[in-house]
Fold:
Amino acid sequence: MTSDNEADQNARLDNSQHLQGTLARGNKDAETISASRRARPLLGGDGDTVSSHRLEEDSEIVPNRPPVGNNPRAMPQIRLRRGSQPTSSRSSESSMRLQSTKDKKQASHPFALVRLLTPASSRSGSIAPADPATLFSILCAACRDGDIDLARDTVGEGANVNGRDGKRLTPLYHAVKRGAKDIVELLVHQGALLDGSDGTESSVVFEAVRQNQMEILEFLLQYDPYVNGLVTDSADLSIKRTPLGLAVENGLLRAVTLLLEHGADVDLKDWSGLTPLCAAVNKQRSEIISCLIESNAEINDAQSKASWGTCLTALHVAAYNGLADIGEVLLDSGADILAPCVFTHQGKRYEGVTPIHIAQGACLAKLLDRYPRGKNTRDGMNAFPLSWAARRGDLEAVRVLLPRKVSINIGDKKTPTALQVACQAFFKDAMQDTIDEAHLEDYVQVVEELVRAGAKEGGARLIVVEGCEKLTKLAKRDGKTSHAKTKNMSLPELMRHAAGLAKVRTDNMKHYGDVKNVPTGRLGAWRAESFLAQVVMR
Structure:
């Protein structure tokens, strides 16, 4: 009996020593892990440094398991190699979650630790809980990747759904950009504010429109966000648009309808200076135009502006772009055919310009069919539509006007005739450092049409001769020789000769860098003569 009792006591002593050694090793491992977490920064999927710390990449941490029954050998927190299968259900689930992070292309957060996502009640004192910055970084990564499970876990842990990252973007913004509707719903239900990068509620709505996420847009609009804010477009930071303006620009009819139903201002201008209706006309969005008109858009609102004019209406935009069908729709809706605007052409501003003056081709014919008296309508400088067609070099518009018996030779000292206007505009373009040869030829054809219709050449020929002399000097040609050769030319031939001189001038500038460096004498004369001979023969 004595020997048996001694054997039992020795066995109990060995068990006690073994248990103490195991616990000591567990505590030492925990201290090592804590020191490693404090010393090594945790990197997010996009390279963002967060305040938590990660473990070694080849190891996982299994949380402490509570004692089972009266078993004195409760397993302490230990380190398991990857691939080991813990026995408890919580450890198995955590191991599977970490296993999913092996594919780095799909998971941008390889730092997702089990200890960060387990309930606080099960955490051991050996590893500190995740700080708010870490949880927020994980939440942003989950929103960018569309990981609803990770987003739900981090929100449950208390992550700030209204925080902002280094670019002042919220988790909701990332979720909308990703197109993760389930995460958007989760964040909104958890109290996320409908704002984005610039602090306006229109930011998230704007991003939903930009990404063409109509289901997300419809969900967000249920919470009545502000939809009329000017938002900086992330694609171009110099541009500010409204969500409605962006929807019109991209031709998203459903987005336009949803925004108008939730209070979008149908006449609010954006960075381009155009109202939504003028922008839709400029982009030729027929269905959106009808939708805006049905939403009581102001047809004759003259607040829009563009590079070619100010005080523009939608009919001005349609006329300038030659959109006959859209112009007819606007006229049926009550557009003013005589609405004035300020038009800019060749650096000069013209006031009192109506849609008839700037209409092109078929659109001009539609307008004149509606208002026949418009053929002799004067602008603020007493110019007729025919003069405006000649000023633009619009051959089609000239051919529309001439059969309607318009006045061709009406003009005075202050108001030149259409032929004189065409010649003046031709030389303004020919004197530029870069010329458009096709457009110069359009002017020549306009002059041919006007001369054929009976336009008097007197003042126009003087303009052309003076222009040829200027171009001759700029091209470093002998003025007397050129004048002798051009004396008997017709007006269109003179203009083609001037176009050749303009071409020689620009070629010399490209070749020598400056007109002053162009060689004179036989070499320069031979180059100019050979080129002009080809032009005249052609």
Remarks:
- The first strand starts at residue 41 and ends at 43.
- The two ends are 131 Å apart (CA to CA).
